[in-house]
Write a structure and sequence with these properties.
- Helices cover 21% and strands 27% of the residues.
- Strands 5, 6, 7, 8, 11, 12, 13 and 14 form an eight-stranded mixed beta sheet that branches.
- It has three domains: 52 residues, Structural Genomics Hypothetical 15.5 Kd Protein In mrcA-pckA Intergenic Region, Chain A, CATH 3.10.290.10; 88 residues, Pseudouridine synthase I, catalytic domain, N-terminal subdomain (Alpha-Beta Plaits, 2-Layer Sandwich), CATH 3.30.70.580; 79 residues, 2-Layer Sandwich (Alpha-Beta Plaits), CATH 3.30.70.1560.
- A hairpin with a 2-residue loop joins strand 3 and strand 4.
- The longest helix is centred in the C-terminal third of the chain and has 10 residues.
- The protein is elongated.
- It has six helices and 14 strands.
- Helix 1 crosses helix 2.
- Bound molecules: uracil.
């Protein structure tokens, strides 16, 4: 197994951060610092240390589906002491990473796991995991404007990829629109609607890949079952 994959699976951090830690010389294999990327280790035989502390693969990883309420940050720690999504999963005895980010005022499906390898792949644009949102917007977009959104709009960081867009309701100068995207750029959905001049008032992620919010209340979570974990792994090319 590659060293960075081992560290990610062990819950040290996401794979990208683990690669940084290796480059920084913070990882030792059998007492020697290894900075070579892709170094192969044998988890049963080799002794791996991160910052001189032994690292072992957990017997099991945690895979949680949280109904993130609005008002919570998707960061590990906030310097202003504001609530974070990790406050909602305090009873889990492992360091968990959110898979991607939802804005503070966005609610909905958020995956949390200590499996850094899976988290890394689920966030990677290469695997194009579908994220579906319900957006309440100010104004009622015309058909051709929604088509523009679906085809891709120009943002300062490049054109957006094709999206699925469907008008659900429209009244009193407000519309509710279903939008599914395969990218995960910062504030992406809000910026896409801003690009066609319909500001988002409220945003909810109703699905991440095939996982929805059924049976969950805002602030509650459930563990994924084996079948769901396998399905997620297969989605991103892991067996
Ligand atoms: N797009 C946004 O603009 N915000 C989110 O929280 C998620 C997607």
């Amino acid at each position: 197994m590659r060293l960075q994959k081992f560290l990610a699976r062990a819950g040290i951090a996401s794979r990208r951060s683990c690669e940084e830690f290796i480059k920084q010389g913070r990882v030792k294999v059998n007492g020697k610092i290894v900075t070579e990327m892709g170094f192969i280790i044998h988890p049963e035989e080799d002794k791996i240390c991160f910052d001189d502390k032994p690292v072992r693969l957990p017997k099991q990883n945690y895979y949680l589906l949280l109904y993130k309420p609005a008002g919570y940050l998707t960061t590990a720690k906030d310097t202003y002491g504001r609530p974070t999504v990790l406050d909602l999963v305090k009873d889990i005895p492992r360091r968990l990473f959110p898979v991607g980010r939802l804005d503070q005022d966005t609610e909905g499906v958020l995956l949390l796991t200590d499996d850094g390898e899976l988290a890394h792949r689920l966030m990677h644009p290469r695997f194009e995991v579908k994220k579906t949102y319900k957006a309440l917007v100010k104004g009622i977009p015309e058909k051709n404007e929604l088509l523009r959104l679906a085809k891709g709009v120009e943002l300062p960081d490049g054109n957006t990829s094709p999206a699925e867009v469907k008008l659900l309701t429209a009244k009193n100068d407000r519309a509710v629109i279903l939008i599914a995207v395969h990218e995960g750029r910062k504030h992406q959905v809000k910026r896409m609607f801003a690009a066609i001049n319909y500001p988002v008032i409220k945003l909810k992620r109703i699905r991440f890949a095939f996982l929805g919010l059924k049976g969950l209340e805002p602030g509650s979570y459930r563990k994924l079952n084996r079948r769901e974990i396998q399905k997620l792994r297969r989605l991103v090319g892991l067996s």
